[in-house]
Design brief:
This protein is an alpha/beta fold. The chain contains 14 helices and six strands. The longest helix has 21 residues.
Length: 293
C-alpha cells in the first residue's frame, strides 16, 4: 500500500491532469499566491476550508511538477525549525549589500573554511544607520538570495529588513538591534560577528561596541590596505580571531561596483559580482544614479 502522502500526491496529479493539463511554473506560483491571499478574506469556516483545500491542492501539485516529495519537504522544514530551537553556531556577515559582491562571498566562504561555524548568515541592513543611500531593500535581498543559491551553508538573514518597522523606532545601531531584537529571536543559537579589518579600525567608535565585544566572538578578516592593531583594540582577547596571513582577501567594494557599473558594461564588473547579480542589476537598472535612496 502506498504511503498516505504519496497516494495524496498521486490523486492531486491525476486531478490536475484531468482538469488543467500542463501549467507553467510561473503561472502555478502566481495562482498559488492568489489563493493564499484569498484565505484572509474567508467569510466563514466552510469558506475557509474550501480556500485552504484549494491552496493545499495547488501546493501539492507544485511539488509534483518539481519532482518533490511532500514528506521530505515537510521533514526538512521540521528539521530546520528544530535546528533553530537547538541552536547552531552562526557567523553573521553584516552588510548593506549595496549590492552584494564577490568579496562578500569570499569572506563567507573563508569563514566556513577557517572556523568551526555551522553556517554564515549574510545579514543586510534594512536601512543604513548613518543615512547612507541604498538600493531598495527588496532588490538587495533578492540579489543575495541569488548569489548564495549554490552555497548550502551560506544563508540569507533578512531579519532587519523584514522587521524594520518594529526595530528602527527604538534601535538604530547594530549593537542595539542585535541585543534587543535578533539574538532574542534565536535564543539557542551561538552568534559570531564578521567584520573586515577596515571596519575593525573604527569599531571602538560604534555605539554598543563594548557590549558586542563582550557578548559575541568577533571574526576579523584582513582587507587589502587596512592593517588592524588587534593587540591595542577592544578585540584584543584571543577569542576574537584576526585572519590576516594565508587568507583569501579582496579590495572589491559595493561602491566600486556602482562606480564602474554606471555604463552597464559587463566587462567592467565580470570580476566583481556573480553573474546572477550582474544580470539582476542590469535587468532592474539598479546602477542608474537615481536608484539610491
Amino acid at each position: 500500500m502506498p504511503h498516505p502522502s504519496a497516494a495524496l500526491q498521486q490523486r492531486v496529479a491525476d486531478s490536475h491532469a484531468r482538469t488543467f493539463g500542463v501549467t507553467p511554473l510561473r503561472e502555478r506560483l502566481r495562482d498559488l499566491a492568489a489563493q493564499v491571499a484569498e484565505l484572509s478574506h474567508h467569510r466563514d469556516d466552510a469558506h475557509l476550508a474550501q480556500e485552504a483545500g484549494d491552496v493545499a491542492w495547488s501546493l501539492i501539485q507544485l511539488l509534483n511538477e518539481r519532482g518533490l516529495v511532500l514528506d521530505e519537504v515537510v521533514d526538512a522544514t521540521i528539521r530546520r525549525l528544530d535546528d533553530r530551537r537547538a541552536g547552531r553556531t552562526v557567523a553573521l556577515l553584516g552588510t548593506s549589500a549595496n549590492p552584494i559582491t564577490n568579496a562578500h562571498l569570499t569572506v563567507a566562504l573563508e569563514v566556513l573554511a577557517l572556523t568551526d561555524v555551522d553556517e554564515v548568515w549574510i545579514y543586510p541592513a534594512g536601512e543604513h544607520p548613518w543615512g547612507k543611500k541604498l538600493m531598495p531593500a527588496q532588490h538587495r535581498v533578492e540579489m543575495i538570495r541569488r548569489a548564495i543559491a549554490r552555497y548550502p551553508r551560506i544563508k540569507l538573514c533578512d531579519f532587519e529588513v523584514a522587521h524594520g518597522e518594529r526595530i528602527y523606532p527604538t534601535a538604530r545601531e547594530t549593537a542595539a538591534i542585535l541585543r534587543d531584537h535578533l539574538l532574542p529571536a534565536y535564543p539557542g543559537h551561538h552568534f559570531r560577528w564578521i567584520m573586515g579589518s577596515d571596519v575593525a579600525q573604527t569599531f571602538h567608535t560604534w555605539g554598543g561596541a563594548d557590549w558586542m565585544a563582550e557578548a559575541l566572538d568577533i571574526v576579523v578578516f584582513h582587507r587589502l590596505g587596512y592593517d588592524f592593531d588587534k593587540a591595542g583594540s577592544l578585540l584584543a582577547d584571543p577569542r576574537h580571531p584576526y585572519f590576516k596571513e594565508d587568507v583569501v582577501t579582496s579590495n572589491i567594494s559595493s561602491s566600486l561596483v556602482r562606480k564602474r557599473g554606471r555604463t552597464y558594461d559587463a566587462e567592467q564588473l565580470i570580476a566583481m559580482v556573480p553573474e546572477v547579480v550582474w544580470d539582476y542589476l542590469r535587468e532592474h537598472r539598479l546602477l542608474d544614479p537615481d536608484v539610491l535612496r
